[in-house]
Write a structure and sequence with these properties.
- This protein is an alpha/beta fold.
- The protein folds into two domains: about 100 residues, no CATH class; about 270 residues, TIM Barrel.
- Helix content is about 30%, strand content about 15%.
- Strands 17-14-13-12-11-10-19-18 form an eight-stranded parallel sheet. Strands 1, 2, 3, 4, 8 and 9 form a six-stranded mixed sheet that branches.
- A hairpin with a 2-residue loop joins strand 8 and strand 9.
- Helix 5 packs antiparallel against helix 6.
- It starts with 8 loop residues before the first strand and ends with a helix.
């Protein structure tokens, strides 16, 4: 994300290519040196809740960066007299470590025991669609004289395979119908459900969730597909990993250049043996070493999950994304090593934040697919440089019971064409 030839040290400086950068409590008195005044907020014993923090705007020319500070300030210059006007180091730590989520009180958790999206700092300040970390790093190094230019955004397509078929049995149909009635979703939706069922069973049409023949595509950018290989809660067990059709999907994905990843079951986020058993099962079925993971329902404990992933020898995780909006939950789209709070070190695996999830996009626009198209492509236009965007599209999202499946498929295929063109430029 940044050139490796500048180092920052607390209460000292390193001379690399003639650049000195001090990180200290007071101001450097030496001429021609840069310095960052330590804020000592997140690197202290006091825990600061998100409600006590402000995202102040700092400018350099026409460009903006955003701080994380305990005082609200008017917009001002990013650097004066070679002094950066806020603690760049603590800002990066706050976002990348997920400090606020590690310290989040239970009353701010959602139904999945995660920090509510609306309570997160970037969302509260409406800057979650800006890669504030990538933006800061780029401008910081440019200020030091290391201008590595504007790099085109890179992309990664992923798929979470939570369920294979909408209608595996009459029992499943009855459960779906009961859910629609219990939620008061109306007779029209119930009619769509039975219409889709009869098309599948009586007229031998493909199951609505069996979208793999066009969902999976060969691409010039990274691709990962995540499978659930076990579980013991109501959130999974909608297919068996040793189902022959799963093996067909896995082989097809591998032939198209996908990496095979694990979608650990809901309870595996804090159960080492369970996650390791699921990983071994997927490796056996897929005949490949599984290095990638994304937690089911993004269920991640900042106290426990990191150690479990390390023990299971996961090399790359892609859980850090929002459930109900699109954007940069960690302030970045690039891979990085998360912080291991319990042992005060970086994790051995890398995290590739999930930036755009289909269900989050649809929830954000209240199922308006035309609006989803506008929001998505405007977001891509805004973030066409100096970041990375990871997508997550489920095979089951193209559901004619809940939305115009043809229009949503058209949006997905247009996105694929857009990514292919951008990756070829």
């Amino acid at each position: 994300m940044a050139p490796p030839n500048v180092d920052i040290v607390l209460n000292g400086a390193i001379d690399v290519n003639g650049v000195h950068v001090f990180y200290q409590k007071g101001k450097s008195k030496q001429a021609n040196h840069f310095y960052i005044r330590a804020q000592e907020v997140f690197f202290s014993k006091t825990v600061y809740p998100s409600t006590a923090l402000f995202a102040n705007v700092y400018q350099i020319g026409k460009e903006k960066v955003y701080s994380v500070e305990t005082e609200e300030k008017k917009a001002q210059e990013f650097i004066k007299d070679n002094c950066f006007q806020f603690d760049v180091v603590e800002m990066l730590f706050f976002h990348l470590s997920r400090y606020e989520e590690y310290n989040c009180p239970k009353e701010l958790h959602d139904e999945y025991d995660m920090m509510q999206t609306k309570e997160q700092f970037l969302v509260k300040h409406n800057i979650h669609q800006i890669p504030v970390v990538d933006q800061l790093v780029t401008i910081f190094y440019k200020t030091l004289g290391f201008d590595f230019g504007r790099k085109a955004t890179t992309y990664r397509m992923t798929h979470d395979i939570d369920v294979i078929f909408r209608f595996p049995s009459v029992y499943k149909l009855s459960r779906s119908a009961a859910r629609i009635l219990s939620k008061g979703e109306g007779l029209e939706r119930l009619g769509k459900l039975f219409y889709a069922y009869f098309k599948t069973t009586l007229f031998n049409q493909k199951d609505p969730f069996d979208t793999f023949d066009w969902l999976l595509q060969k691409a010039k950018y990274e691709q990962v597909i995540y499978f659930i290989a076990g579980g013991k809660t109501r959130f999974e067990n909608f297919y068996k990993i040793d189902d022959p059709y799963i093996l067909e999907i896995i082989n097809s994905a591998k032939g198209l250049g996908y990496e095979i990843g694990l979608h650990p079951s809901y309870a595996a986020f804090d159960q080492e043996k369970l996650l390791r058993a699921e990983k071994l099962q997927l490796e056996r079925i897929s005949d490949s070493t599984v290095k990638y993971s994304r937690q089911h329902f993004l269920h991640y404990s900042f106290q426990k999950t990191a150690s479990i992933l390390e023990t299971a020898k996961i090399k790359n995780d892609s859980t850090f994304g929002f459930q109900d909006v699109i954007g940069f939950r960690s302030g970045t789209g690039f891979e990085y090593h998360p912080y291991h709070f319990e042992e005060e070190r970086k994790c051995t695996f890398t995290e590739t934040p999930m930036v755009v999830m289909d269900t989050a996009l649809l929830q954000e626009v209240e199922e308006d697919i035309e609006k989803a198209r506008m929001v998505l492509f405007y977001f891509l236009k805004k973030n066409k440089e100096n970041t990375k965007i990871t997508f997550n599209f489920h095979n089951s999202t193209f559901d004619e019971v809940y939305r115009d499946a043809k229009e949503f498929r058209k949006l997905y295929e247009d996105l694929r064409q857009f990514l292919e063109k951008k990756s070829s430029d």
